């Protein structure tokens, strides 16, 4: 399946009830040949309205975080979510919703074939790294899965709620930058 076919199929998805209240599905954004894939949990209100991940206040913070280490959402990374439609009132996506939607992310992953996956927050880390992932203890640590390096960062929305986590996130970002420089050929 091509990117365009995949995106059209995702836009027509009715696998769970989230499609009933969405404005736009939030498929993803960025360089489709990126070596680094960022994965959030699901769209919020701004994302639902615009059809692009991380465009609200948390998105602005994410862009600032990326720029600190020479990354740009349109040039050298790809950003997607576990679920493509907004959960009501920005609640965490239910496991059934994640299960219904995960094949879209798997297809994106297969097309991109990233060398590094960065989970933004505990929901995506629990889904992609390990079920019992503890973001407060395991953020910034590397996990290898089938030759791909995985790391989790605090979700930008969590950093907006708790700015005291920003210094440790800066350390995590510098570690991410170090590994990108070592592993990826064309990212930085």
Q: How do the strands line up in the largest sheet?
A: 1-3-2-4-6-5
Order of helices and strands: HEEHHEHEHHEEHH
- Average per-residue pLDDT, rounded, comes to 96
The general outline is: globular
Radius of gyration: 15 Å
Q: Calculate the terminal CA-CA distance, rounded to whole Å.
A: 29 Å
Helix count from the secondary structure assignment: 8
Strand-residue proportion: 5-15%
List the helices and strands and how they pair.
Layout: H1 3-11, E1 29-30, E2 36-40, H2 45-50, H3 57-68, E3 78-81, H4 95-112, E4 116-120, H5 122-128, H6 135-138, E5 143-145, E6 148-153, H7 156-161, H8 166-183
Parallel strand pairs: 2-3, 2-4, 4-6
Antiparallel strand pairs: 1-3, 5-6
Summarize the structure in words.
The chain is of the alpha/beta class and 188 residues long. It has a single domain (3-183), classed as 3-Layer(aba) Sandwich (Uracil-DNA Glycosylase, subunit E), CATH 3.40.470.10. 43% of the residues lie in helices and 13% in strands. It has a six-stranded mixed sheet, with helices on both faces. Strand 5 and strand 6 form a beta hairpin. The radius of gyration is 15 Å and the shape is globular. It starts with a helix and ends in a 5-residue tail after the last helix. The mean pLDDT is 96.
């Amino acid at each position: 399946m091509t990117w365009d076919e995949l995106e059209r199929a995702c836009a027509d998805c009715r696998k769970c009830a989230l499609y009933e209240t969405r404005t736009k599905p939030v498929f993803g954004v960025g360089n489709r040949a990126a070596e680094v894939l960022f994965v959030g949990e699901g769209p919020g209100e701004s994302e639902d309205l615009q059809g692009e991940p991380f465009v609200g206040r948390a998105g602005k913070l994410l862009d600032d975080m990326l720029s600190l280490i020479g990354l740009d959402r349109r040039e050298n990374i790809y950003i997607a979510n576990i679920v493509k439609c907004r959960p009501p009132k920005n609640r965490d996506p239910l496991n059934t919703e994640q299960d219904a939607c995960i094949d879209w992310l798997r297809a994106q992953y297969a097309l991109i074939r990233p060398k590094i996956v960065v989970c933004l927050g505990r929901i995506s880390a629990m889904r992609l790294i390990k079920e019992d992932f503890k973001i407060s203890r395991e953020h910034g640590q590397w996990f290898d899965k089938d030759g791909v390096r995985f790391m989790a960062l605090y979700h930008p929305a969590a950093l907006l709620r708790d700015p005291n986590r920003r210094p440790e996130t800066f350390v995590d970002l510098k570690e991410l930058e170090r590994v990108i420089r070592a592993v990826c050929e064309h990212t930085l």
